[in-house]
Design brief:
152 residues, mainly alpha, Globin-like
């Protein structure tokens, strides 16, 4: 079995496993979205992993991640919540690879999946930072720290 065949045939198991792991994380926004919405989001991400592995191109993944980063940031998701979705899916796919692939194919298979999801996580982090830089953070009033220690 090669990686593409594995990804095509084990999609449902991997996504269900990732959804279960995500639900155990008790992330506020993903819990609020519900099981079916988490499942749909994970399926979309999984399909992009498969597409990226098949084509050996990352641009579709990057464009998708930029879009969801903007949406999730605007909705108040913390970066770690969205990264957790990537992490649980990656772990689930790795588990399938370790169980189903011949030992001689493991390094390439894990390398391809990790490269695709790593590019997604990198794009996600960069997009979150870009969104945060657009938002004016309140300044801190530090004057009290420099007024001295009289009366202490």
């Amino acid at each position: 079995m090669d990686l593409i065949e594995l990804l095509e045939t084990r999609r449902d198991e991997s996504v269900m496993d990732a959804n279960l792991a995500l639900s155990r994380s008790h992330l506020v926004h993903y819990d609020a979205a519900g099981r079916q919405e988490r499942q749909r989001r994970l399926q979309t991400l999984y399909d992009l992993v498969l597409q990226s592995v098949k084509s050996r191109h990352l641009e579709t993944m990057r464009r998708y991640v930029e879009t969801i980063a903007q949406e999730r940031y605007a909705a108040g998701f913390d970066l770690y919540e969205v990264q957790m979705a990537f992490n649980v899916l990656e772990e689930s796919i790795w588990r399938q690879i370790m169980e189903m692939m011949p030992a001689g194919n493991l390094a390439e298979a894990i390398g391809l999946v990790s490269t695709v999801l790593g590019a997604g996580k990198d794009t996600l982090a960069q997009s979150y930072v870009a969104q945060a830089c657009k938002t004016k953070a309140p300044s801190l009033n530090m004057l009290a720290l420099f007024e001295g220690t009289d009366g202490v």
